[in-house]
Write a structure and sequence with these properties.
By secondary structure, the chain is of the alpha+beta class. Among the domains are: about 120 residues, Butyryl-Coa Dehydrogenase, subunit A, domain 1, CATH 1.10.540; about 120 residues, Butyryl-CoA Dehydrogenase, subunit A, domain 2 (Beta Barrel). It contains 11 helices and 7 strands. It has a 4-stranded antiparallel sheet with strand order 2-3-7-6, with no helix packed on it. A 3-stranded mixed sheet has the order 1-4-5, covered by helices on one side. It is globular, with a radius of gyration of 21 Å. The C terminus is likely disordered. Bound molecules: flavin-adenine dinucleotide. Flavin-adenine dinucleotide (FAD) binds next to strand 1, strand 3 and helix 11. Flavin-adenine dinucleotide binds next to strand 1, strand 3 and helix 11.
Length: about 400
């Protein structure tokens, strides 16, 4: 079974996808099949160079801007095609979680000013990556308590200082969406070019999702121009964060489920091959049950993630709730499937260069990245106690008033 075989039964449920969309997905699957990824045991720099190259190659083939509106140079395909592309990427390698789409660069699409948006969209369309710097040492689950702060500087500029931690894509991102307190103490977000002065990073070795560099990002009076570089209006940081992750989390979930489905296929093939060559007389019931049950649970969680994407695309108020609990549930489902399936092929799946061992470590890392699970369920529970979920505001760019406008470009 390949990724397309897994997705094929979902076709009748996705009438918005044309046969061209399915052909594009099949091309993506075939392309990723042809690439030889460096193993998980090679140096991080080699893996990250490979991942960036894949992203650029796919961007050249239009996969970065698949769902971007035509007015902004994209193919304007339904958001669900992005989720399916990410399922296919995950099937091959969970480190390909940034291989298609705008990634965190999507933050710039709706909520940045036109000039900044267009400049970054062109870079993203060429394969550049934008990272997100939100988490701080006091705890990523409490973004509202961040201490990274902007101070007022001459000519209307803001200078941002603070420390972000557990941040991914440190050495590979062309820019950062940084969350900080503006001079009035409100949580705001801005795009900062990775080449801007005042940025410094320090790598930490992660136990999973090690393809991209990861660690601490320090900002020492990094300049932003509040007239142009803000994402949303001053003080809209929490709404920006929430709106972005309502759309981003189901994509992450689909990637995770793709990784587990790829493990499922590998294990099923290995067991069938062992029977074929006479290594096993037959496949035992415990293995058959594990294959059947996990096929059902992975497919069910994938359907939930596609429904979340559709809710987000329709501007439905429940998309945020579904994205939070769906990410936690989908990644846990993927991890528990791999935990159960990988041992069925024995120690061969536990070597340092095994894709099964890698998928397990990557999925474990994804329980933290993009939202830690108990916090996501807890906030989901809180939402469910109210009569109806809170509307996620659509954030638009609203620069600071003109008397504060900066005269110097700071992050181009
Ligand atoms: C591989 C990876 C990639 C990442 N990439 C990025 C990135 O690119 N950018 C970025 O900004 N961040 C990134 N992160 C960070 C991630 O978003 C955070 O790990 C996550 O938000 C949780 O924050 P934390 O680790 O600080 O844990 P905490 O927020 O400290 O939470 C730890 C535990 O404490 C619990 N807790 C919280 N409050 C209380 C309380 N009052 N009492 C008791 N328990 C409490 C939480 O529920 C949780 O169980 C990444 C993390 C990983 C592992």
């Amino acid at each position: 079974m390949n990724a397309m075989d897994w997705l094929e039964p979902l076709r009748p449920l996705l009438p918005d996808l044309a046969s061209d969309d399915w052909a594009r997905l099949a091309r993506l699957d075939a392309l990723l099949d042809q690439l030889t990824a460096p193993g998980p045991d090679v140096a991080q720099a080699v893996r990250s160079a490979y991942l960036l190259q894949v992203r650029q190659q796919l961007a050249g083939a239009g996969y970065a801007t698949l769902t971007v509106p035509a007015a902004h140079g994209g193919a304007a395909r339904p958001a669900v095609s992005q989720a399916l592309s990410q399922f296919v990427c995950g099937w091959h390698d969970l480190d390909l979680r940034d291989a298609t789409g705008l990634g965190h660069g999507a933050l710039l699409l709706g909520a940045a000013g036109a000039a900044v948006r267009d400049r970054w969209l062109a870079r993203l369309a060429a394969g550049d990556l934008v990272g997100i710097a939100a988490t701080e040492r006091h705890g990523g689950s409490r973004i509202q308590e961040i201490t990274t702060r902007a101070t007022l500087a001459p000519r209307g500029r803001w200078l941002i200082s603070g420390e972000k931690t557990w941040v991914s894509r440190l050495g590979e991102s062309a820019g950062w969406v940084v969350f900080f307190r503006d001079p009035d103490g409100r949580v705001s977000a801005a795009i900062i070019d990775a080449a801007a002065p005042g940025l410094q990073w320090e790598a930490i070795q992660p136990a999973g999702l090690a393809g991209w560099s990861w660690g601490v990002l320090r900002l020492h009076q990094a300049p932003v121009n509040p007239g142009t570089d803000l994402i949303g209006s001053p003080g809209a940081g929490l709404a920006v964060f929430r709106e972005h992750f309502a759309r981003f989390r189901p994509l992450v979930t689909a990637t995770a489920l793709g990784a587990a489905a790829g493990v499922h296929a590998t294990v099923a093939e290995a067991l069938a091959a062992r029977v074929r060559v006479g290594m096993l007389p037959r496949v035992r019931d415990n293995a058959l049950i594990a294959l059947g049950r996990n096929y059902a649970s992975l497919t069910a969680a994938l359907l939930a993630s596609l429904a979340t994407v559709a809710l987000g695309g329709a501007g439905d108020v429940r998309a945020d709730l579904w994205a939070r609990v769906g990410k936690a549930y989908g990644v846990e489902t993927a991890l528990s499937a791999v935990d159960e399936l990988a041992p069925l092929v024995g120690a061969a799946g536990f070597t340092a260069d095994s894709p099964l061992a890698k998928a397990r470590a990557d999925l474990a890392a994804l329980r933290y990245a993009d939202g830690i699970h108990d916090s996501l369920y807890r906030s989901g529970g809180k939402t469910l106690l109210t009569d109806r979920p809170e509307q996620v505001t659509t954030v638009t760019h609203l620069p600071v008033p003109s008397e504060q406008d900066a005269v110097l470009p700071t992050s181009a």
